[in-house]
Amino acid sequence: MRPSGRNLSDMRPISIETGVMAHAEGSCLIRCGNTHVLCSASVEETAPRWLKGSGQGWVTAEYGMLPRATNTRNRREAASGKQSGRTQEIQRLIGRSLRAGVDRRAMGERQITIDCDVIQADGGTRCASITGGWVALKLAVDKLLKAGVLTSDPIVDHVAAVSCGIYAGQNVLDLDYAEDSEAGTDGNFVMTGAGRLIEVQMSAEGATFSRTEMDGLLDLAEAGVAQLVAAQKAAIG
Amino acid sequence: MRPSGRNLSDMRPISIETGVMAHAEGSCLIRCGNTHVLCSASVEETAPRWLKGSGQGWVTAEYGMLPRATNTRNRREAASGKQSGRTQEIQRLIGRSLRAGVDRRAMGERQITIDCDVIQADGGTRCASITGGWVALKLAVDKLLKAGVLTSDPIVDHVAAVSCGIYAGQNVLDLDYAEDSEAGTDGNFVMTGAGRLIEVQMSAEGATFSRTEMDGLLDLAEAGVAQLVAAQKAAIG
Amino acid sequence: MRPSGRNLSDMRPISIETGVMAHAEGSCLIRCGNTHVLCSASVEETAPRWLKGSGQGWVTAEYGMLPRATNTRNRREAASGKQSGRTQEIQRLIGRSLRAGVDRRAMGERQITIDCDVIQADGGTRCASITGGWVALKLAVDKLLKAGVLTSDPIVDHVAAVSCGIYAGQNVLDLDYAEDSEAGTDGNFVMTGAGRLIEVQMSAEGATFSRTEMDGLLDLAEAGVAQLVAAQKAAIG
Amino acid sequence: MRPSGRNLSDMRPISIETGVMAHAEGSCLIRCGNTHVLCSASVEETAPRWLKGSGQGWVTAEYGMLPRATNTRNRREAASGKQSGRTQEIQRLIGRSLRAGVDRRAMGERQITIDCDVIQADGGTRCASITGGWVALKLAVDKLLKAGVLTSDPIVDHVAAVSCGIYAGQNVLDLDYAEDSEAGTDGNFVMTGAGRLIEVQMSAEGATFSRTEMDGLLDLAEAGVAQLVAAQKAAIG
Amino acid sequence: MRPSGRNLSDMRPISIETGVMAHAEGSCLIRCGNTHVLCSASVEETAPRWLKGSGQGWVTAEYGMLPRATNTRNRREAASGKQSGRTQEIQRLIGRSLRAGVDRRAMGERQITIDCDVIQADGGTRCASITGGWVALKLAVDKLLKAGVLTSDPIVDHVAAVSCGIYAGQNVLDLDYAEDSEAGTDGNFVMTGAGRLIEVQMSAEGATFSRTEMDGLLDLAEAGVAQLVAAQKAAIG
Amino acid sequence: MRPSGRNLSDMRPISIETGVMAHAEGSCLIRCGNTHVLCSASVEETAPRWLKGSGQGWVTAEYGMLPRATNTRNRREAASGKQSGRTQEIQRLIGRSLRAGVDRRAMGERQITIDCDVIQADGGTRCASITGGWVALKLAVDKLLKAGVLTSDPIVDHVAAVSCGIYAGQNVLDLDYAEDSEAGTDGNFVMTGAGRLIEVQMSAEGATFSRTEMDGLLDLAEAGVAQLVAAQKAAIG
């Protein structure tokens, strides 16, 4: 029934290749089916101004998409002179989600910027960015720990995200573009390795939804995030 | 226990004054406690370009805040040259939420723009904007029906929104600023008059949350939205 | 003869409601007929950079208009990415006018920003902004005096403004939009409580004017400003 | 008493050199003492959109200043990404003033853009721009008349402008920068060849003014504009 | 003597992987040593406005760099709100160079946009973009030929580019970043498969250069471009 | 054969008038035929941030064109909100070229900004800007030397530039607009007074070129620059 032939609760194949950007403190290329995102972590030895003297660090994120990551070419945001509302919404979500998995006091007054650049898009780019962004963050933190810059690990738990939605009347896991553009309701679910919730974003696009339907999607999401966390574990070895 | 002395499941006083902007097709001033938002609906007799020939209309929203709506003055967005990510995120949410309560085919190829301008802020401005924006929209649609421009009502149901969160370890309804800035988890819930869900946005800010906690907040939200819908009904007579 | 039925030298009803914005150090809602402007004063305990060490303060103003303050909706300046030439011209005029009524040395090195946001427009928004802006400024200064932050009152005199023009061949006072859009010549007159001139801006729009006509308009303006000053006195009690 | 040694009612030397920009339909370099402005008129054979079908034309103006026209270098507006409020205010004034001397119906549906670029500044740049801009406009119109594109002259009268102010307690004509930066009150006066008023802009900068003082400045302005009109006549032969 | 241990006339290893972006009509990932650029070609079935009716097509290019492509993170151009002068200069060069290898009449009235996004930078990104951009362009054109949209091949010849410079007093081929940042003189040379010159850009950075030195660099460039053209041939099979 | 009737190796008449901008430390109006550029040098007693503590100075340049410098009016860059890619490319070239003729250590930690504003354009504006910009720079440096601010002359040699191209199959020197817009290949050549090369920029526009053709253009350029240097010497006396 799904355009891809997957079962309702099937994730797309996940692959996370680390160390793909030579200059970054941490990096990976995450592939969730045909959605491919390059994630890098850049460490800066100063915190944002508003944290001066607080003893706490900051994690922030930026998101972009290559103009031809999609089926028809999008205008380059650098050329149009501003980031779209969608881009800003996504990068705020990524930053917020990753901060929820970090003890900012243990970071010390430094900032880590996660850049998520979509090389190829087939639905779920914000979820892939969170999942891959966490790997880049973890690798950068491990480097700081190894170098003795950090003495205790500020990473509290895994953070990963997956989308679910109601497609053709059925609850499905890990929507690809063909499903996402048709789904009446969909949502993004960000969770920890322990299965706690960080962010739930559900939207009706054309059809409202019930609490029962919401519960069904949450069940799927829990199963999906568990698989993503396993892939993160494998990637960071 | 709450800074305002309210009970855990108490809403702030709601007041909706209609017809406050002489030029607009529909307008209201909504007050949720000390949060005051001016909402207007402007009808344009052409749809956006991408709907030409589709027979469908569009509802969109813009959001702003007077520089001194808040405790310390914020920079005027018109002067800084762009709308913040927060502003864009909010106005996208308002538009999406209101569209979920509208039969866009019954609108015909016209556009209604909802402007929500926060005069005074004390938490929950996006929820007040949705609830008040729906009243402005309804009044504009009624005017078009009365004038015979529309022959069937495109408004399918009420749309209203409320925030809930976990404050000092307790689930509380309708957060004010003092609570919102301290809450470890909070969420915005957009629902229809019939109690169906349109949008759920829950975020951990400092503390992750469980599905049980989420369910508790949803219970509160259902009760809160019911009161808002009653206030909408009273306002539109 | 006037569209509103007013006599040639009649002002529109003036109403000034103070304390309308809970967070601001001073605020009012001024209504000149159907022109309604929200004015707030925000005190900042540092002066602009170029005044550092001068012992002097600064008064500045910003002006905005809600998109649907007018008969047809205007594009939101925050969305278009810049303030129009008209907006900048008006806010420079408001700031300059209010500074003329202030002893900047008595202010000390602090800045007061007057925000004037037009809620509803029917001609004369810049004049209403000056007249209402002065009330917000005065209230903020009184608060600083009461708190002992200021020890002598930097407000030297009232500042108020009115427009006059030649409509259908007659000199008329306090133009509303219907008159303003037809007037061949019009002007804005900013004066002190003592009747001294601060700013005179007269423009021919379609028909040039003589010194005699200019004198006639100044006579009207003096009478109008006196009424505005009386309303300011009543408002600040 | 004046820094330049001029008498109170002395203008600076005026020189208007025409035909200085080979490509423009009309052009001149106007020198009012050490204030030098390059003015050009560009004819476009279409009117702005809002005049389509009206049978009327439009005159508009743009103003700029070379970065080192002044004593210390100013930031180039093209580099800073926007025109300052001052620039916009001035170019709106130039356009409005020149339109007051034109029968827009006799222009037909075309637009003439007057560019005024200050090469060297010593006070009074907006007045020099209006006076020189009129010459460029007149030359462009004459060219259209000679070519038979226009059959009747849309230029109704001369338009010229001068500044006056109260410097060291005295009314002085044609302020240079040394005077302008010290004057407690100053004004710009735009008039026709027949001595009718087009625009009066008087501002108190530090000291308010009386109607008697205003009358004194108007007397000076009338004498000054007469000399400028004579210089325009000589320039256009 | 070279930091990399290469001989003076050694190129870095070249690798061109095609078909790396699923949605693009043509794409490749070019690696010149540690400089990696993703190149895509997007076909649009309309030409730019200024070519309407000319029977000719257009090739244009856009260039970007991921924020962490370099040793320290660069600000994202989409976030800063504009493309730097360097970015614009490079993308104009890429477009101009590729157009020199195309018969724009044979293209018909369509546009092909080449996006070059630097994933990792180690000197020579603009040259790699031209060389890889040509491959993406060629693949897109081949697709149009295969589909019968084009009937004759508009690609006239290969286009490839290499940098050369004077490093530590010696002429060296294909500068990496360590060399580029120290070279007193360097240049970029764009040539055709037949060895004709398209663009020569030589700059003294600290030390001027002679015609003899320039000739030496041209000799190196010819040899380098020949190797790049061979790699292009291998890539497109 | 040339539209202007010049011989293949004829320069246009060169005129350099110095001291044309009263406020600038150095200035000139350079005329190369009908291309006229105003050049000024502004000295700032602080170096850019990245040179703090280095003991070195900086020379930078900005370039602009009056809207009606050309045959049809161009949009004012200050109004459009950004400098075009062409403008940025040109001003980067001017700055780089002039820096090649300066010992930045002998400048001390100060910055000199060269503004080049094209009053009238007929091809070769970037070359005229470099040649005239050098004169403005030299005059400013001489002033600093005379004032004892500088004790040794940081100007190492003359810097001048000329364009050459292949027009109607022939190598021609100093292209005017009529030639430039038709030439299949053209280039800009920046050289020192001693004949050393600073910058070579050659582009094929429609037709590629050979090394032999390039050599022919370099021969012409050397002769042209020698004449420009002679004009510079005459101008600075």
Summarize the structure.
Chain A is α+β, with helices and mostly antiparallel strands and 237 residues long.
Features:
globular; 9 strands; Ribosomal Protein S5, domain 2; four-stranded antiparallel sheet; Ribonuclease PH (chains A, B, C, D, E, F); homohexamer; EC 2.7.7.56 (chains A, B, C, D, E, F); transferase (chains A, B, C, D, E, F); PNPase/RNase_PH_dom_sf (chains A, B, C, D, E, F); plasmid (chains A, B, C, D, E, F)
| Secondary-structure class of chain A | alpha+beta
Residues in helix, % of chain A: 25-40%
Pair of chains with the largest interface and how many residues each contributes: D-F, 34 and 32 residues
What's the alpha carbon Rg of chain A, rounded to whole Å? 18 Å
CATH topology of chain A: Ribosomal Protein S5, domain 2
Mean pLDDT of chain A, to the nearest integer, reads 97
**Count of alpha and pi helical runs of chain A:** 5
Low-pLDDT runs of chain A: none
Query: What is the second-level CATH architecture of chain A?
Result: 2-Layer Sandwich
- Total domains of chain A, how many? 1
Q: Would you state the CATH class of chain A? A: Alpha Beta
* CATH superfamily label of chain A: GHMP Kinase, N-terminal domain
Alpha-carbon distance between the two ends of chain A = 36 Å
As a percent range, the share of strand residues of chain A is 25-35%
Largest sheet: number of strands, sense, barrel closure of chain A: 5 strands, mixed
Strand order of the largest sheet of chain A: 1-2-3-5-4
Helix and strand sequence of chain A:
EEEEHHEHEEHEEH
Shape of chain A: globular
